[in-house]
């Protein structure tokens, strides 16, 4: 889905109370793929080369892209506000470190080196990154200010770190207690963007409501700057040579085209039509099933990136019948999740054979199998469903739920309609309602006119491949609420599973600091709560699909991008890389995406 997370969901947006600035997911068996060649050229690869080299001089074209979660007139630039931030942020702001989602490792960028030593996480910064408005170096003091503001905004780093300070101009030190896991700190600190410039934020260190700060335009730490706001697009140009901005010494000269125009498409289908018509040069995230991909020009390259998150259905736990476990389990048994995924496109989604609450990439390493013993697989079984309902004093025809889902997200819409059809065929008196907006606009209203909400079952973010965070998200989900309550009303603490009473808070608290050899039982207990008490119906997990049309832009051929093919997001990241295309001459500047020489 376009702008699905955004970060990701990318989902919608990662909670501004919990890890507002994190994005990405580690490890999963996905391959960056190519849809075809490069259109009408006669070269041997996507970088426009048949052995020739090019200087890649200036080309008078714009890279056309678009947002899909919110319209241009709602774009805003306060990173603490969480929602309505356009995806140009990945070009405007420098990443602290980039994350390779397939190999599960961070790539140095603004932060060039990091190490844990004696309860401290020490980050060394590059010295050539600057703020666009002043040309001042980005220092450790600036990043310490950012972390303080984000902690004020509810970032969970505040629960992990004891102290944050600049221990040198370009050295940031985060101290933590002995019982805090190092991986928690690493993921929590590095997966950010330098988005809190002192020119805007220097007096806001003590502001407890940073989301309310007015940010009329971003002060860039990355190579791009906002230069124009039109009614139907925002324009971003390389800082170098701009009258109101200082040059970017890192990647400002990598762009041999004018910049980016970021517009809006209301639905996945609108994006598909634009690609077929050659109106877009790329998009950061878009669902396209195999049939749709066949209609795209051969010049369009697809990058599949493990998403970790995906569509879940959250029931209203505050009221009967959905507060009754047997009803929730019966609904699961009324669905054929394999068929749902096949309807959507099996090459774009990942099925969870036995829902555990963990990302698909982490289940086997955490629990020993992707179908661990003792977990319900919830294969379609209407007789089992009817039996469970009978035990609880219900029948399917007694229950008339409405499923709210985002109509413009075609993959979720297809899946939601399949859920409604399957449940209806089983005997439930269910209906669906396609909302014109994403889950961020309706999920918090669960229980107000609808009983089931299609929303992400896991937040997007490299952090969520760690079982603790994936489980905490499902069991203590405050994404859609501004307080500490679970947005779907799942406020249980002691839950009985197979004769064992599991205290959710105590088990999460024990799992958080547990050394590696002592985690499995805690993970298993919490995963069984997700599996058998069913706080959420896990329907599918996604591969992010990111696109660049190589008709007018050269990028390396398939197989030559390495880790750069599995990051968020190729269209913004490839120009920033300090490497050259194989087709670039000695005189050409660095960067792995260039406008084609005409």
In short:
This protein has 16 helices and 23 strands.
Task: Describe the protein.
It is a single chain. By secondary structure, the protein is an alpha+beta fold. The protein has a domain at about 310-540: Dipeptide-binding Protein, Domain 3 (Dipeptide-binding Protein, domain 3, Roll), CATH 3.10.105.10. The chain is about 25% helix and about 20% strand. The strands form 7 sheets. It has a 5-stranded mixed beta sheet with strand order 16-15-17-13-20, covered by helices on one side. Helix 13 (about 465-475) runs parallel beside helix 15 and helix 14 runs antiparallel to helix 15. The longest helix is centred in the last third of the chain and has 17 residues, at about 410-425. The radius of gyration is 24 Å and the shape is globular. It starts with about 60 loop residues before the first strand and ends with a strand. The model is unreliable at about 1-45 (pLDDT under 50).
């Amino acid at each position: 889905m376009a702008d699905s997370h955004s970060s990701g969901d990318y989902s919608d947006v990662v909670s501004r109370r919990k890890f507002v600035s994190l994005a990405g997911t580690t490890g999963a068996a996905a391959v960056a793929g190519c849809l075809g060649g490069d259109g009408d050229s006669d070269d041997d690869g996507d970088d426009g080369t048949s052995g020739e080299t090019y200087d890649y001089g200036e080309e008078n074209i714009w890279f056309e892209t678009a947002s899909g979660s919110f319209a241009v007139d709602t774009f805003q630039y306060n990173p603490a506000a969480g929602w309505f931030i356009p995806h140009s942020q990945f070009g405007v702001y420098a990443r602290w470190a980039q994350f390779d989602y397939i190999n599960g490792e961070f790539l140095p960028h603004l932060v060039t080196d990091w190490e844990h030593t004696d309860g401290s996480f020490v980050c060394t910064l590059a010295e050539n990154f600057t703020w666009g408005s002043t040309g001042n170096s980005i220092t450790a003091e600036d990043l310490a200010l950012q972390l303080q503001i984000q902690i004020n905004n509810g970032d969970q780093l505040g629960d992990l770190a004891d102290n944050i300070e600049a221990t040198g101009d370009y050295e940031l030190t985060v101290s933590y207690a002995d019982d805090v896991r190092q991986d928690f700190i690493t993921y929590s600190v590095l997966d950010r963007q330098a988005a809190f410039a002192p020119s805007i934020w220097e007096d806001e260190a003590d502001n407890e409501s940073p989301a309310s700060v007015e940010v009329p335009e971003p002060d860039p730490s990355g190579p791009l700057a906002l230069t124009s706001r039109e009614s139907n697009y925002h324009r971003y140009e390389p800082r170098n040579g701009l009258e109101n901005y200082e040059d970017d010494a890192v990647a400002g000269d990598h762009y041999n085209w004018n910049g980016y125009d970021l517009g809006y498409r209301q639905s996945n289908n609108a994006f598909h039509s634009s690609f077929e018509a050659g109106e877009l040069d790329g998009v950061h995230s878009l669902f396209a099933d195999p049939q749709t991909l066949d209609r795209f020009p051969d010049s369009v390259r697809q990058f599949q990136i493990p998403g970790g998150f995906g569509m879940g259905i959250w029931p209203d736990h505050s009221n009967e019948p959905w507060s009754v476990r047997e009803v929730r389990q019966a609904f699961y048994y009324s669905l054929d999740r394999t068929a749902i995924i096949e309807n959507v496109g099996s090459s774009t989604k990942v099925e969870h054979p036995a829902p555990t609450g963990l990302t698909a990439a982490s289940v086997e390493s955490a629990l020993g199998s992707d179908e661990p013993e003792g977990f319900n697989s919830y294969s379609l079984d209407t007789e089992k469903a009817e039996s469970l309902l009978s035990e609880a004093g219900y029948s399917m025809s007694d229950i008339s739920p409405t499923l709210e889902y985002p109509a413009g997200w075609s993959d979720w819409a297809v899946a939601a309609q399949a859920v409604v059809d399957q449940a209806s065929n089983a005997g439930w008196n269910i209906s669906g309602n396609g909302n014109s907006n994403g889950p961020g606009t309706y999920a918090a209203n669960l229980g107000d006119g609808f009983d089931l909400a299609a929303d992400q079952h896991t937040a997007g973010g490299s952090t969520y491949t760690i079982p603790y965070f994936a489980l905490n998200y499902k069991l203590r989900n405050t994404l859609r609420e501004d307080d500490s309550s679970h947005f779907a009303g799942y406020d249980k603490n002691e839950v009985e599973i197979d004769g064992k009473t599991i205290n959710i808070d105590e088990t999460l608290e024990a799992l958080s600091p547990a050394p590696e050899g002592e985690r499995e039982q805690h993970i298993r207990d919490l995963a069984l709560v997700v599996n058998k008490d069913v706080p959420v119906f896990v329907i599918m997990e996604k591969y992010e699909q990111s696109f660049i049309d190589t008709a007018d832009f050269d990028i390396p051929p398939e197989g030559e991008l390495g880790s750069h093919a599995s990051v968020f997001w190729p269209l913004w990241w490839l120009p920033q890389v300090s490497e050259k295309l194989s087709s670039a001459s000695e005189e050409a500047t660095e960067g792995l995406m260039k406008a084609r020489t005409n």
